[in-house]
Design a protein that fits this description.
The two termini are 14 Å apart. The protein has a single domain, classed as 60s Ribosomal Protein L30, Chain: A, CATH 3.30.1330.30. It has helices at 3-14, 22-30, 45-58, 68-74, 88-104, and strands spanning 18-20, 36-39, 62-64, 82-85. It is α+β, with helices and mostly antiparallel strands. 56% of the residues lie in helices and 13% in strands. A four-stranded mixed β-sheet has the order 1-4-2-3, sandwiched between helices. Helix 1 packs antiparallel against helix 5 (88-104).
């Protein structure tokens, strides 16, 4: 997991600008509050497909980040398959960190 991305996700959690769990993320996307979906790499295929479709319908970008255990630990919670960042500035920072990591490869 990219250190900068994990720090920004942690910051979003501490600021109260992140929701996690199936129902909370679905609600954030439906209400147009979600700026970014964070999906665990080992999310169940059905879960991943469902959230990718939801994100596509809501025009929300999706990144994969760590395992369910790592994402849960980062959020101070039990293992999580999905989370949503609900702050446009943190969303932009995370997307920039992801794209810069991809450029380094």
């Amino acid at each position: 997991m990219n250190v900068r991305v994990s720090r920004l996700i942690g910051l979003a959690r501490r600021c109260g600008r992140l929701v996690s769990g199936d129902a909370a993320v679905r609600e954030a996307v439906r209400r147009g509050r979600a700026g970014l979906l964070v999906l665990a790499e080992d999310a169940a295929p059905r879960t991943a497909r469902s959230f990718r479709e939801l994100a596509r319908a809501g025009a929300v970008p999706v990144i994969t980040c760590g395992t369910r255990d790592e994402l849960g630990r980062l959020l101070g919670s039990t293992p999580r398959a999905v989370a949503a960042v609900i702050d446009e500035h943190l969303t932009r920072g995370i997307l920039e960190a992801v794209s810069s990591r991809e450029r380094e490869r």
